[in-house]
Amino acid sequence: MVQYRYLFSQLVRRELRQKYMGSALGVLWYLANPLVLLGAYTLMFGVVLKLPHESDYPLFLMIGLVAWTFFQQALLAAAPSLIDQGGLIRKANFPRQTIPAATVTVQLITFCAVLVLLIPLTVAIRGRLSPALLLMPVLIALLFCFALGCALIVSALHAYFRDVVPVLTAAMLPWFFLTPIYYEPSTIPFFKDHALVRFCLEWVNPVAPFVEAMRWAVYGGRSGDWVWFVYALVAAAVALGLGTAVFRRARGELAVVL
Amino acid sequence: MTAEPGEITLRDATRSFNVRADQAHTLKGLLFGARAPQLPPVPALRSVTLTIRPGETVGMVGRNGAGKTSTLKVLAGIVPLQSGVVSCGGRIVSLLELGAGFGRDFSGRENIYLQGALYGFNKAQVQERVERIIDFSELGEFIDIPIKTYSAGMLVRLGFSVAAHLDADILLIDEILAVGDEAFQRKCLRCISERIASGTTVVLVSHDAGAIERVCQRVVVLDAGRAVFDGPTAEGLLHYHRLMGTEHSAGESVRPAADRAIEVIDIELRDAAGRASSVFQSGAPLQIVAALRARAPVERPSLTLEVRSQAGERVFLTFTELDGPLSSTAQLAFEIPALALLGGDYDVALTATDGEQAGPVDRTVRFSVAHQPGAEGIVDLRGSWRELEPLRAGL
After folding, report:
1. Class for the domain spanning B1-20+34-91+170-175+199-243
2. What pLDDT shows up at residue B287?
3. Which of A84-98, B1-15, B199-213, B242-256 has maximum average pLDDT?
4. Fewer CB atoms inside 10 Å of the end CB: C or N, chain A?
5. Residue B103 is nearest to which of A6, A14, A163, comparing CB atoms?
6. CB-based contact A255 B78, cutoff 8 Å
7. Which residue of chain B has the CA closest to A6?
8. Which fold has domain B252-369?
9. How high is the pLDDT of residue B248?
């Protein structure tokens, strides 16, 4: 594994280059995309629809949006990655998980670039930085592990069943709405009457705790919110373990099915 | 079981592949596909057992679909076995598919780094080798342009140059060398020989008997997924030619039966014992038996016999007037007491005419001459050195 570090960095660099080659703004596009979304959602949910929400709505929205975008992009990019790199797999016997791992890492790099924006934004909006922000790198690492575990599963499955990408693409939009990104479940009247729905939204949907935990880090902790953090830790470990197990079972025949 | 570097062991290796028109599986197939008729899996390797010692060079020959490439893929660890054991020691470098593992949008140089990385090299280790690789490939300034602009020959140059410089313990090379031009092919073979001299185990798949003869000490003949021969190169190639020879028809007609008065209707090549054969040894007798047929009586029948090398060069041509007239059919034999040809494939072309020498060829038949160590070329001049003045005169 360690021997193939250079392969990993080569794959990451290649993908980054391929992404930005030939576009004038290059990496800036990856900042522009969430910013445009941020503006649109702020306008729609914050001003027009006036959803009940936390203070500093743009910041609130931003955290959920970048975390979600990273997760979604990581999965959608990783799913077809083994097929895209079939040439490499048919060529040599290197550890196959390097490929989806590199894809998720590329998304992490853009994710971090966007997150760097969060710091000036937090200062500008709230006027101070919460000490809990120091937990942010840990949360990012946990989200990365969680996304990597999921990416290992979907990439291995997609190599065998080419339905995975369309199913995933179709699932992403409803999943987005079911994740507390532009709203806070506790403030929505509907959820007061439907506790079970709220429970599913907040605890069964594994992305929600990551979003909540990151907000907790940025906004400064309230007592009891460390549960999100523990959930994120467990979810990351489970996803990574499951992903590794699925990938190990699938890896042998990869060169044959690709 | 750990093998020492360069050692290859296959024991009862068995592998088959599912062939389906739609390669990709879909969920639909999984959910509803159980009822769909399933083609039986195609066996690629059937219980192949093979041991190659470090530093050995093995040529692998066989018909298309005999399992040669599958064997290489199994050895490279890319395709797993269904049953049996495979173990290869040390670093394995393979050259299997043309352009596989190259990024088309990246330059030749960048692809050298990626290829190195694929085999577990780090940046410094590739950097050490990159100039040597570029020199060997002779790609010059093309090395810095995207390889999507490369020709097939240039891709082979790049692929081979990289593979040759990665210090493999085991080097696996598929047919693709044939794509390169002749000068580069020779260079590759020379390079392979050097690798062999430095102790690399080489497995070479090729249809080019000459190439195998030049670098391999040992030949494995695969047929329908089984190793049907495993032994010294000369014998192995003879076995291979015999295997392929069963598919040769004795005397192909190259010309539609025109309204010519006389033609050659059959050619058969016979060995010393008078048996039909298509593989001969240098120096052994060879008989070319021709059957002639005349539609109308021909006063002065004549025969043109030509032997060509595989490259199409004329090795020998003779024009013979026969004692006519010929009114129906006849059988003649051209007897060669000792075949003065060296290893390779040759074509015999026979033409019967009524008087004039020119005319299209009637029939051709191909035969192979088994390679012999110690001589290269076409003609076996069958000479040997004799001491006129003793070498060790001073003693």
Report:
1. alpha beta
2. 93
3. A84-98
4. N
5. A14
6. yes
7. B122
8. Coagulation Factor XIII; Chain A, domain 1 (2.70.50)
9. 45
